[in-house]
């Protein structure tokens, strides 16, 4: 029996975590206006309330941090604010969780890597973020690992969900608006449906609450397999019943954006499997299920 607090409850992942609440897992998922992870007082009050309520009900408290500044391009000119949410936020959460004996699961990103690998990144590989968002997320990981709190960092990638503004929803809109479109074919990653990620995090929360494993750990959890943004867009068109040939491959250099992106962001799921957790299904199967749902 778990009681879970999800800062960032109004985001793609936060909503899917809340949607998977059951009789044995209660989920409180405040939005940023209800719980701002930059605000020490609010965080301490929320974690204390969680710990007291859970223990009174004979449940185990766990925090899953889904709060983040995720506007990758905007972060280039707003790094201070991104840092406050993505690095100070986890630090404040870790301190509050540590003092109340509450384990913390924190979500991070493939963008902490430089993207120059040729095989999937393992959890211990060297970080080398290329952009401000990645730097702030890497700083958040450091803050957690340096806090001594019982904490699990779960890196994921290319997240899409029903409630977000994301690549899948953008492609669905552009399919209606344009005859043809060009999509970059030289960035490779693993699309991850936030609903599948939420299920994986809840499985991890159960293990963490049971006291399994070391007190700090970095894990990778993404949809299975990999593709390019162009390959992903073609698959989305196919799911929409549209001709995938309307999606044309192009190079990143043809569409310069404020933030550099890693060319290769595939994360190995070996750590997830070794922790005894269920790997997420392959990304094409998940995409099919997303459109069927
Ligand atoms: N999206 C991706 O492609 C992707 C890829 C890899 C990793 N990730 C990671 O996955 C996690 C979840 O991402 P997501 O896609 O669900 O993001 P999202 O949809 O952008 O949601 C982010 C959430 O964080 C909240 N938030 C922002 N500032 C906050 C603050 N100061 N205090 C508390 N909450 C705050 C937002 O609330 P408001 O809406 O109220 O501002 C929103 O609920 C994040 O850690 C992200 O870095 C995402």
Automatic annotation (TrEMBL):
- Any idea where the RmlD-like substrate binding domain is? 4-291
- The residues the entry assigns to the signal sequence are none
Q: Output the Gene3D superfamilies linked to this UniProt entry.
A: NAD(P)-binding Rossmann-like Domain (3.40.50.720), UDP-galactose 4-epimerase, domain 1 (3.90.25.10)
Alphabetic keyword roster: NADP, Oxidoreductase
Pathway given for this chain reads:
Carbohydrate biosynthesis; dTDP-L-rhamnose biosynthesis
Name the top EC class: oxidoreductase
Task: Look up the coiled coil feature and give its residue ranges.
Answer: none
GO MF entries: dTDP-4-dehydrorhamnose reductase activity
State which Enzyme Commission number(s) the record gives.
1.1.1.133
Q: Which Pfam families match?
A: RmlD_sub_bind (PF04321)
Superkingdom of origin: Bacteria
Entry similarity comment: Belongs to the dTDP-4-dehydrorhamnose reductase family.
- Outline what the protein does: Catalyzes the reduction of dTDP-6-deoxy-L-lyxo-4-hexulose to yield dTDP-L-rhamnose.
Protein's recorded name:
dTDP-4-dehydrorhamnose reductase
